[in-house]
């Protein structure tokens, strides 16, 4: 290892990727303050720096099974604005887990921003689990901004399950996800967001179901506290015999605002598309039930939130 | 012992409970019955602290709990099985039983409480308490929670509703065990003949008042012979 992780690095890595850097195995590429911090490759997974722009190509050989790739990003330098392009080339029949995420530690008054553009090319019948966590901390009043873009191409029979979590310390985020699905492919997206104070979070999903029997399930659960604002929009294009289910659930508290904009386009007679959206405060009966089990109102609220974002 | 003194409750100009005076002595099963809208459920909510009486006092083991919040009453030993179980997104059956126990239960403990209500733990422990469960399943989980809580004083609001596919005997067994094992008091709101049959005492409500109260042997025969306002039903049929 060329670089030594400090305590802040270790804490951030633990939070966003649940990894202990000293015990990290498999393929990984840790980026810190806009530069490569440490990298490891395996016989099946190669990581190569891009020559034309900032970023990496992650090349996963076909038939690679039970391997993982960690690509966390740490921002600690004040006032940093880091844009990175990461492309994942997943070979046919591979079955891998990819863990990404960005943690910002900002003690300054300046804005720290990370824009990660991730593109997935998932080969025939390959299976990918992609986990992305976002987290901000620091004593300064500088903004922590994260704008991730994810573009997904699923070949025939490919599946990708994406889990994203943003629960603390991100002042502003615009998350864009676009996906293009071929025959028999399946995309599952599970998004969890909690905003507090005056934070703002926008998520936009665009999914094209182009191949017969392609399917997607998008679930967004969010909690907006204080005077934070959230906007969820989804646009599903059913262009053939396909299935889509979009579920947007939000709890609003205090003076928060949540907007949900669903759009489902059935462009084929056999497109079966469902959108469900629900926004509301914590139900009084839920608080009463938990209080009748001995919890205080505050504890009941915490349990409801914990369960909702689990 | 729980005592209600002069409890009055009205809403929108309607007297829902009129000067209720009742004593629930220890280690007995009370069944409250009466027509829909006679004030039974409101009384249960008042005891749990979900509704506040306009007048009157609630005394539990010598302490006036009239102004105590729900959770304080729960800690003192009052439990309440809702008529309509509450749904939660994300909270699983295992989670709610852990919350009820106030600690993390192991799988075999959870299994024990779920099998008592006719549910197989491995099929249910990780399921969310939401619309994916049927009304009957939610109801059984609600009863399992109260059996686990094992409070000194437990209210069940129409526990039989929606359990038609489950052995009715199991429900009765739970009440019997809660009563016998720990000398608890159980108050059940019900129209179900077999539940009335396990009562030590029956309280009949009518238009917000206690119409009559007494030992089962005295009250039950008259109830079953004739009641124009209430229909008492046999096992396996809904009570509405």
SSE blueprint and pairings:
The complex is a heterodimer of chains A (310) and B (240).
Chain A: H1 7-17, E1 27-32, E2 35-40, E3 45-49, E4 55-60, E5 65-75, E6 81-90, E7 95-105, E8 112-122, E9 127-137, E10 144-146, E11 149-154, E12 159-168, E13 172-181, E14 186-195, E15 200-209, E16 214-224, E17 229-238, E18 242-252, E19 257-266, E20 271-280, H2 284-291, H3 297-308
Parallel strand pairs in A: 1-5, 4-6, 5-7, 6-8, 7-9, 8-10, 8-11, 9-12, 10-13, 11-13, 12-14, 13-15, 14-16, 15-17, 16-18, 17-19, 18-20
Antiparallel strand pairs in A: 1-2, 3-4
Helix pairs in contact in A: 2-3
Chain B: E1 2-11, E2 14-24, E3 29-34, H1 40-48, E4 55-60, E5 63-64, H2 70-76, E6 78-81, H3 93-101, H4 107-116, H5 121-124, H6 135-149, E7 153-157, H7 168-182, E8 185-189, H8 193-197, E9 201-206, E10 209-215, H9 216-225
Parallel strand pairs in B: 3-8, 3-9, 6-7, 7-8
Antiparallel strand pairs in B: 1-2, 1-4, 4-5, 9-10
What do you see in this structure?
- The complex is a heterodimer of chains A (310) and B (240).
- Chain A is mainly beta.
- Chain A has three helices and 20 strands.
- Chain A has a ten-stranded mixed sheet, covered by helices on one side.
- In chain A, a hairpin with a 2-residue loop joins β1 (27-32) and β2.
- The longest helix of chain A has 12 residues, at 297-308.
- The radius of gyration of chain A is 20 Å and the shape is globular.
- Chain A starts with 6 loop residues before the first helix and ends with a helix.
- Chain B is 35% helix and 26% strand.
- In chain B, strands 6-7-8-3-9-10 form a six-stranded mixed sheet, sandwiched between helices. Chain B has a four-stranded antiparallel sheet with strand order 2-1-4-5, with helices on one face.
- The longest helix of chain B is centred in the middle third of the chain and has 15 residues, at 135-149.
- Chain B is globular and about 45 Å long.
- The A-B interface holds A 221, 249, 283, 285-286, 288-297, 303-304, 306-310 and B 48, 50, 69-71, 74-75, 79-80, 82, 86, 88-92, 95, 99-100, 102, 145, 149.
